[in-house]
């Protein structure tokens, strides 16, 4: 069995290195520098466990990267994992999907096998049927179901856990067009996962596409919901959103995960996918205003963090503000739609003097934000500051002790936008405020 992957972004690369543990795998990309670097074992993204698997795959000779789609000719299964960036109106840009289908169509035309094409890129409901299938059929002059197989096969990888999520996914979704495609995909995954396969759900291609958007929109809704509850908690002395979330999460119908209040959701997926889903619903004549509210509340959450800071510090004009965390979450260098960047913009508009630290995302941030002074460590960042705002839950920030804030800051005002500290311990000698924490009269 030989595997092909088209597109070596986050998803394609994780898929390629994991499948190369078992099968010969070739991964295709347009970007010359990226392909050469990968063939030399250099990873373009920060992802736990990725480099080790890349090096292993290359040295075993099971894995290679190429610019030439022709190398897919003897592949039994081809994953489409190209990007689907968001357009201004929320819709997604399918140009990379179209280009990869054209390349794969050419390959299918000359293939002597009946390869299976798996659509991993996130696309709105109906795209596999309306765009992918016709392009593959026209290009190959073969029929889906007889000449080749095609399944909508969305991924649910989290940044920072992409390898683990590929090797032990919560589920495999197979949205197939026909029996042949479903049988081929089931057999591929059975062979790959061996004795302990993840649960497999078979559905239509549109069902699979909807599962992807449904999952990400639901997760985004859960986060916004808990952030809304956090606002209410802040109005009642001593009330803590973490207790409220825990109390709700004990109900198995609700579940405890994704109920951590904070500065809102960011990253390359949740905001973009919710926008695309709203647009797709609108195009289908369905009212998606519930999800519009989810986005609106998320947009104002960084402003709320600023309001918490102003409530404690007064005007931010000329204040030395230390921001801990730049990426959209801990342990990643991804700045896309980071709530921290949204916060920095607001702080800058208010005339604050900003210094920041992030253990992983600093180099990327330096190329994007020139109005920030970059510190060399978390302690260096808070030294002499009038105000510290914690925007991600990095280990380095969690290990700061209350005495560090008291000793190092000019005036120890601490805004815990991720709720990483114990409010009791961090209120002694510190003007501490946490998202979703009603001020305790006694503290
Ligand atoms: C997400 C989905 O989890 C994943 O299944 C999908 O394939 C891609 O999008 P990712 O973007 O890596 O993964 O981030 P995730 O860990 O889901 O967090 C998204 C955002 O929500 C982050 O900004 C995070 O800080 C925030 N978040 C998450 C909260 O504010 N509270 C929570 O309880 C959980």
Summary tags:
443 residues; alpha/beta; eight-stranded mixed beta sheet; six-stranded parallel beta sheet; 16 helices; 14 strands; binds uridine-5'-diphosphate-xylopyranose
- Envelope shape: elongated
Which range does the strand content fall in?
A: 5-15%
Bound molecules: uridine-5'-diphosphate-xylopyranose
End-to-end C-alpha gap: 64 Å
Helix fraction, binned, reads 40-55%
Question: How does this structure look, described?
Answer:
With 443 residues, this protein is of the alpha/beta class. The protein has an eight-stranded mixed beta sheet with strand order 3-2-1-4-5-6-7-8, with helices on both faces. The chain has a six-stranded parallel beta sheet with strand order 11-10-9-12-13-14. The model has no long low-confidence stretch (mean pLDDT 96). The protein binds uridine-5'-diphosphate-xylopyranose. Uridine-5'-diphosphate-xylopyranose (UDX) binds next to helix 8. Uridine-5'-diphosphate-xylopyranose binds next to helix 8.
How is this structure best summarized?
This protein has 443 residues and is of the alpha/beta class. It has helices spanning 10-19, 32-39, 50-59, 95-110, 127-140, 162-167, 179-193, 205-234, 241-249, 270-283, 289-313, 339-349, 362-368, 378-382, 395-398, 402-408, and strands at residues 3-6, 25-28, 63-66, 77-80, 116-119, 149-152, 172-176, 200-203, 320-324, 353-357, 373-374, 387-390, 413-416, 431-434.
List strands and helices in order, with pairings.
Layout: E1 3-6, H1 10-19, E2 25-28, H2 32-39, H3 50-59, E3 63-66, E4 77-80, H4 95-110, E5 116-119, H5 127-140, E6 149-152, H6 162-167, E7 172-176, H7 179-193, E8 200-203, H8 205-234, H9 241-249, H10 270-283, H11 289-313, E9 320-324, H12 339-349, E10 353-357, H13 362-368, E11 373-374, H14 378-382, E12 387-390, H15 395-398, H16 402-408, E13 413-416, E14 431-434
Parallel strand pairs: 1-2, 1-4, 2-3, 4-5, 5-6, 7-8, 9-10, 9-12, 10-11, 12-13, 13-14
Antiparallel strand pairs: 6-7
Helix pairs in contact: 1-3, 4-5, 8-10, 8-11, 10-11, 11-12
